[in-house]
Each structure stands twice: as C-alpha cells, then as structure tokens.
Amino acid sequence: MSEDTATLTSSYTEMTEMLLPNDTNALGRALGGAVLHWMDICGAIASLRFSNQSVVTASMDHVDFKGPIDLGEIAVIEAYVYDTGRTSINVKVDVRAENPQENETRETTSSFLTFVAIDEDGTPTEVPELVCETENEQALRERAKSRRKEELEALVERLE
C-alpha cells in the first residue's frame, strides 16, 4: 500500500459510550445533541486514521434517528470512510444501542459526514485514494454510496 492510498478497513472505528444521566432528556433517553457529538468524534477519528492528517468537520447530512437509546444502555458508534474527494473524506456513521442485561441490540441513528483534511496551517490538503481490498469492503462502500444517493434524491424531491 502506498502513501497515496488507504483502505476502508484502515479507517474503521468503533467507540462505545454508556448513556448516563447528563446525556439524557426528561424521558431518560439520549439527547440528540449527545448522539451527534459522539458521531462527529467517531467520524473524525475514522477520517484521521484514513488520512493520517488533522481533519475538520465540513458537513453532516440528514440524520435519521430510528430509535431511542435508554439510560444505562451502551451506545456503539461505528464509522468508516466510503469515498473521498481531493481534500474531502466521506464517512458513514451508524449508532446502535446495546442492552447487555437483555442481550439486545438495535439500530438507533445513522448519517453521512464529510471531513476535510488540513495541514499545520489549516489549509485543505490532499487525502489518499480509497482502496477496497476485499469484497466486504467493496460491498460496504457501494451500500454507503447508494444509500447516500437515495437520501439526496429524496431531499431534492421534497424541496421541489
């Protein structure tokens, strides 16, 4: 693997957070802002691992809150790079809730984030080309690209 390329797997990041009272609403469920914060951090780490450079958040697409995370549950945040531009890095981020006592897991949140790699002066800088070495990496990439395209098309339809 050259300096000019990086793999989807090299960007894969998983982090966990236990939902504690400071991050809950009056219903004992995760605050949306706390979940967005976790997603931003996880996406930034994936981008940093991929590019080996500092990154800044450029955008977060539509966020789907599919279900709650309840007090005491574990939030599992997963992110990976699925596409790049010259200086931009597109990341798929998914969140699921785990209830270890019930041996239960469910999807809760998903979005697409874009980061920009920057040099020590804060100037956007080129990122490696994404390489998918396995069929699984290629499938993840294609699913993410397809899903994002569907979401953008739906957004355009709603705006028309």
Automatic annotation (TrEMBL):
**Entry's Gene Ontology BP terms:** acyl-CoA metabolic process; fatty acid catabolic process
GO CC annotation terms, alphabetical: cytosol
Recorded GO terms, molecular function? long-chain fatty acyl-CoA hydrolase activity
Respond yes or no to whether keyword Aminoacyl-tRNA synthetase is given for this record. no
Q: Where is the HotDog ACOT-type domain?
A: 9-121
Keywords, ordered alphabetically: Hydrolase
PANTHER family on file:
ACYL COENZYME A THIOESTER HYDROLASE, CYTOSOLIC ACYL COENZYME A THIOESTER HYDROLASE
Q: What is this protein called?
A: Acyl-CoA thioesterase
**Source species of the chain:** Halovenus carboxidivorans
